[in-house]
Specification:
With 288 residues, the chain is an alpha/beta fold. Helix content is 38%, strand content 16%.
Length: 288
C-alpha cells in the first residue's frame, strides 16, 4: 500500500486521485493560453481552481519547455524568476486560499524564497541534480517535494529501468538530507525533454506506470497538453485537451496518485469516472 503526504494532503492507494492545477507565470511557457499576466488574472484563476476543487496549485515562473520543440522559449534569470513569484505571493495574500501551493523550480534560492512565503511543495524536474542545495532547503522547511526522473538533465532517461535508477538516486539524495520519505513524490517525466526522446517513449512510460510502484512513493504524472499528445493528434497545445483527458484515463487506471493539469475541471471529472472503474475492477479482482 503506497501512501504519501503532499503539502499536508494525504495521497496514495487508499485516496481518490488528486488534481494539481498549473499556473504559468512565465511569458515563455509552451501553452500560451495558460499564461497569467497580472495580479488580477492570478487571483481570478486561483479562485476558479478552488471552485473546481483543485487539490494543489503548481506555480511556474520560468518555463521548462524543451527548446528543441518550442524554439521561441527564452531563459529567465533567477532574479526575474523570484520577482515574478513575488507578484504571485502578493496576489495570494488578497484571498483566503486553502489549497497547498507548489513551486516548479530547480533553484534552491527560489525554493527558499517560496517556502518562506507560504509554499509547502517544491516541484524539481531535475530531481535534485541541478542544484545540490535543493534537498537541504526543502528539509529545512519540512516541505514536500516532487522529483522528476533525471540523471544529469531533465528527461534524459528513456526506458523504465533507467527511470527507476534515476528516481532511486534522487530519493536517496532527499533522504540523506533528512527530507521525510513520505513527503517525496515521484514523477517519471513524460515529455519530449531532449531531442532523442519521442512520443513512443512517453506512451511506454504511461502504459508501464505500475513498474514504478516498487519505489514505494506516491506517483505524479504530468501529461497535460504535452508533445506526445500533439504528435499523436497532429495538433498544437491549444487543441490537445481531449487527448490529454484520454491520457489521464490511462494514467488513473495505471495507478497515478496525482495528475498535474492545465484544465482542472475537465481533468477532475475524467479522474473521478476513471477511478470509479478502477476501483470496481480491483474489487472484482480483474486486471486492467
Amino acid at each position: 500500500m503506497i501512501t504519501g503526504n503532499l503539502g499536508g494532503v494525504k495521497i496514495g492507494d487508499n485516496v481518490n486521485p488528486l488534481i494539481m492545477g498549473i499556473i504559468n507565470l512565465s511569458p515563455t511557457s509552451f501553452y500560451k493560453k495558460s499564461i497569467l499576466h497580472s495580479r488580477e488574472e492570478i487571483i481570478s484563476h486561483l479562485i476558479q481552481m478552488e471552485k473546481h476543487k483543485a487539490n494543489f496549485v503548481d506555480v511556474g515562473a520560468t518555463s521548462s519547455a524543451p527548446t528543441h520543440l518550442y524554439e521561441n522559449r527564452a531563459s529567465i534569470s533567477l532574479e526575474r524568476e523570484i520577482e515574478i513569484l513575488k507578484t504571485f505571493f502578493d496576489a495570494l495574500k488578497e484571498i483566503n486560499l486553502k489549497i497547498p501551493i507548489s513551486i516548479d523550480t530547480q533553484s534552491s534560492k527560489t525554493a527558499d524564497f517560496a517556502l518562506s512565503h507560504g509554499a509547502s511543495i517544491i516541484n524539481d524536474i531535475s530531481g535534485f541534480k541541478y542544484d545540490s542545495n535543493m534537498p537541504s532547503v526543502i528539509s529545512e522547511y519540512n516541505a514536500s517535494t516532487i522529483i522528476m526522473a533525471c540523471m544529469n538533465n531533465p528527461g534524459d532517461v528513456f526506458n523504465i529501468e533507467e527511470i527507476k535508477l534515476a528516481l532511486k538516486n534522487s530519493i536517496s539524495l532527499g533522504i540523506d538530507a533528512n527530507i521525510d520519505k513520505n513527503k517525496i513524490i515521484i514523477d517519471p517525466g513524460i515529455g519530449g525533454w531532449i531531442p532523442e526522446r519521442n512520443h513512443i517513449h512517453d506512451c511506454n512510460i504511461l502504459w508501464n506506470l505500475p513498474e514504478f510502484r516498487c519505489l514505494n512513493q506516491g506517483i505524479l504524472v504530468g501529461i497535460s497538453r504535452k508533445s506526445f499528445i500533439g504528435k499523436i493528434l497532429g495538433v498544437t497545445p491549444e487543441y490537445r485537451l481531449w487527448g490529454s483527458l484520454a491520457a489521464t484515463t490511462i494514467a488513473i487506471l495505471k495507478g497515478s496518485h496525482v495528475i498535474r493539469t492545465h484544465d482542472v475541471q475537465e481533468t477532475r471529472d475524467v479522474s473521478l469516472v476513471s477511478d470509479f472503474f478502477k476501483c470496481r475492477f480491483e474489487k472484482e479482482g480483474l486486471n486492467i
